[in-house]
Write a structure and sequence with these properties.
It contains seven helices and no strands. The protein has 119 residues and is an all-alpha fold.
Length: 119
Amino acid sequence: MKQIGDRLRDLRESRNLKQTDVANALCISNKILSSYERNISVPTIDNLKNLCKYYNVSADYLLQIELSKEKLPSEDVPAPMVITAEQKKILSYYERLSAENQEAVRGLMILYYKEQLRK
């Protein structure tokens, strides 16, 4: 199953565009777009909206959401997470980063998590 990055890359390549073209049009760095296309990080809500507008596709398409009227939301709602004081401190640092640096941190976290799963 294709991930969002695969669909973004397919859309760009089907239009014979370079990553720099798309990144410039969306006012994001080429590094961020590349991390999306390589499934290292996921777009922010604002960037997702901009990508949908740019490629003239729905978010449902990019996110591979197929709605069925027969499916109801699960009643198995997970218990809320307890956040420790140390985690709150780290989150406060994260919130003070620029949007680009926040995306880089998210990408690194995903990368480390995937690496950990392989071990």
